[in-house]
Specification:
alpha/beta, about 15% strand, globular, binds 1,4-dihydronicotinamide adenine dinucleotide, binds D-galactaro-1,5-lactone
Length: about 270
């Protein structure tokens, strides 16, 4: 191979991104082109026009045969697909329980090396806002949605221990263009930091099964990423740039409102219609 050809070689032959039509999928779509020859994008909703390096697959993650075919020829997966808020159990069951099982079963069958699983802060949302927790904190889901993220973390642990399929579980805080409320000044993850954490999760050697909090370098922190330091994630952004949007509040356990006492915010009190 000539030097010129070598410099063009990309680390992955084929990367799969699920949930590609969603908020974070749309942010990541462009970045993946640098990392793989072929980017396979999937969602239950249409994905727009396919670029030359893209393959599009529109399917429901609950479709086992479809997901099996989706994983064929894939080196690594960024799994963002599924319901991203609290919802009736039957809906969560299909997208977030059956869907994540289908993904792992197919990934193992097809020899996928690594998955980035989009977990959520709602897996640990019933920890108080006055405590700082790390990767070893007990799961304390704040919603059925949070319970499905605990299932994904647990399933991925099993697939690593049993089959050696590596996963980084990214417990994402709040990744939006701009924080929407005071809580999000603490949970904010900029899109740039999100993409960087995906990069670290895909390219670090031997991650095994890891838990990392997806959060920027905000002034107030509830989550300590020391145990995921080996990923080399160095957030560049901070919610401090949005301080003028909301009054900054010192942590206190004197709040009457559970949505302020617990890290999950409104998720700890809301109940979806069934
Ligand atoms: P989103 O709701 O914008 O995107 C999720 C995508 O999954 C959507 O495009 C949706 O069509 C697709 N999807 C839903 N059900 C599906 C099914 N049955 N089969 C196939 N595709 C399906 O959510 P967002 O913000 O992009 O989040 C991505 C992931 O990160 C989600 O798993 C979410 O739970 C997680 N997350 C996001 C946070 C954030 O602040 N954006 C915070 C914590 C976790
Ligand atoms: C999540 O898990 C959701 O996907 C997202 O929509 C936000 O609600 C986020 O958590 C948050 O906690 O702000």
């Amino acid at each position: 191979m000539s030097t010129q050809q070598e410099s063009k070689a990309k680390p992955f032959r084929r990367l799969l991104l699920t949930g590609a039509a969603g908020n974070l999928g749309r942010q990541l779509r462009g970045a993946l082109a640098q990392w793989a020859d072929v980017v396979r994008l999937s969602d239950i909703t249409p994905l727009g026009e396919a670029a030359a390096h893209e393959e599009h697959v529109v399917l429901d993650l609950a479709d086992r045969a479809g997901v099996d075919a989706l994983l064929e020829g894939v080196d690594a997966v960024v799994h963002l697909g599924g319901i991203s808020v609290d919802a009736p159990f039957d809906d969560l069951l299909e997208a977030n329980i059956r869907g994540v099982y289908n993904l792992y079963a197919a990934a193992q069958k097809h020899g996928v090396k690594r998955v980035l699983f989009a977990s959520s802060n709602h897996a640990i949302g019933f920890h108080p806002t006055t405590t700082v927790i790390d990767a070893d904190a007990p799961l304390r889901p704040d919603s059925l949605y949070g319970v499905t993220k605990c299932f994904g973390e647990s399933l991925s642990r099993y697939y690593f221990d049993r089959f050696g399929l590596e996963t980084v579980c990214m417990r994402i805080g709040s990744s939006f263009e701009v924080p929407k409320n005071p809580r999000m000044l603490v949970t904010y993850l900029s899109y740039r930091d999100f993409i960087e954490l995906v990069r670290c999760s895909l390219f670090t050697n031997r991650v095994g099964h890891a838990i990392v909090y997806g959060v920027s370098n905000n002034r107030v922190a509830w989550w300590d990423n020391t145990k995921a330091a080996f990923l080399g994630y160095r957030p560049q952004d901070s919610s401090a740039q949005f301080d003028d949007l909301f009054p900054v509040q010192a942590p206190t356990d004197e709040f009457d409102d559970p949505a302020q006492r617990f890290q999950g915010g409104a998720f700890v009190v809301a109940l979806p219609q069934s």
